[in-house]
């Protein structure tokens, strides 16, 4: 670390020697007079330039005297060119006119909340993502947003990562990209490892906490994440990003774009490679991805094709760390077979149209197709032949019933469909109405292969020991609108109907036949009101969401005993304010669940653990976040979430191996805490800019105690933790570059030993007093102090 910091100091000193304040000015919106943040100002004849800050100010350093040809550009605005003589003594102000070309905002507008929408949401800009985007997955980049808790199997944020929002895991968080659903149709999860470095192709994100507004895909049962990919860049550009850091972690990204060709066409592309050894032993990651976008831009229409893909190979660290290893061997990995890996590739195709029809109507539609395929490979020691539907092997007088086996479990699937919306805004602006929806089909093959056996018997390589198929149709239609009753007072309504047909056929991995079909029709209404005045918005809403069980709930339960769908009633109320140097949000929420599905320890007829419905449970809390600009150099901010997360009553089942006959003991609990739902989550951030283009950031995160299961048993917990990260960012605009940016991210500065995720199980064994209860806890430890250093070159 000392060598890295010394090297960074030399880099800063060397780069600083290029920088010299020379020409300054301001870029404004010509119609509103508002500053344009991120506008590019380029001295074409000297190959130097600058980018405007939050006040619209720019500086170009180390210019030669004489004539300058300045080009000022900003997405969505007409480029301005102006010649001046340097040194320039006057006030240099550029006022840009909005372009007449269609913008891409309406592609995601149908599924996003606006300032007048009565729900709780957070906007994350491209600039905010870029500050932390040195190779870690999207959940890690969102770590400091309100009510978010992140985790990583490998411990370093690269590979398999996850997040919870308000205690809800990834299977309950709806994710869309350009309005197109990303959640897996069967598990409801989003596997970010299949989308490596996707943040490098993201323009904006919106997190809606709670049910939020109607969207496409899986039900929003805790939060939704709405992602818009990069919009067009009117100027040609190229960018090279390289990062390196702890655990032999590397990220290499190349981006380029044509700019606007013939005032109508643009093509953008990205190629990325990320690799890491991981904090946990052998928890390696080899991740590759690309993103290509080509678009036609007219005055009233946009037609865009996005193609992106991710390919991952990660060494498995899913088993976790036994509690006995927590103090002296935190990097322990149970798996030792050299190819105990997960291998998967996912290709996405999106054809998107957005357009205006007259002065009052806007519409967008998209066709999409996703092709996923891959497997994970496992070495299994002394497995029974019966587990693979194989007969015992007889050699002479010996009967052999088990052997060492290497298996692969495959998933090969197609997901395709269409989404569309049409938006009407009345002439007087009082009505803003959206009619939208989508229809999607998932077709997935699940099968397992034996690729090696120490004693093979009557088997061939790639024999399938299970094989089943699932087809799921998901349709929804929604009508939502806002009506301005009086200046500042808006009423909101949102009605969604969602229909699901799910069928599956074949043999499951536990050898059971899983033929069945289920149909659901859900009605999800939402109502609310907001009031805006003097930069403040007060809001309140009530929303309903219904959610079907996941694949494992169908396949693990006998088909005659499939769990009931879950239902959520959500109340949100709060205030958001933006006034001068101070901005803040404060809200209260109540999320009441009916028939929430949880792990209880209950098993099915072949010993697999199943989830069961609990009649009543809830989450309730207060969330606060804000930021204050103390001066031009100092900004402080933070967020705080306080909550109660309770199950009113449920029954736990514990395996009993104390006798020859296996049984289960049952215990009933009341008013217990929901697993993985801390009562407090908070973050604090301080930013200091001692000189122009240099930013120092300190970020702290506190997460309270979490329970590993739903019993509120203190012997089954994750300890509270408090981490601190430090970031240094420096940028200059030397000759022949639009900018050079240097970023150092030091994570977990004080070497906190913490675990944000884990699992537990208990069982009875014979003991001195008839039987003894054994509880085994497993954890996913995060790395101690670690760093990533990144260099970005923009042309």
TrEMBL record:
Residues 1-19 form the signal peptide. Gene3D superfamilies: Carboxypeptidase-like, regulatory domain (2.60.40.1120), TonB-dependent receptor, beta-barrel domain (2.40.170.20), TonB-dependent receptor, plug domain (2.170.130.10). It is a multi-pass membrane protein. Residues 332-749 form the TonB-dependent receptor-like beta-barrel domain. Residues 115-222 form the TonB-dependent receptor plug domain. Belongs to the TonB-dependent receptor family. It comes from the Bacteria. Its main location: membrane. It comes from Algoriphagus halophytocola. It is found in: Cell outer membrane. InterPro entries: Beta-barrel_TonB, Beta-barrel_TonB_sf, CarboxyPept-like_regulatory, Plug_dom, Plug_dom_sf, TonB-dep_rcpt-like. Keywords: Cell outer membrane, Ion transport, Iron, Iron transport, Membrane, Receptor, Signal, TonB box, Transmembrane, Transmembrane beta strand, Transport. PANTHER family: FERRICHROME IRON RECEPTOR-RELATED, FERRICHROME OUTER MEMBRANE TRANSPORTER_PHAGE RECEPTOR. This is TonB-dependent receptor.
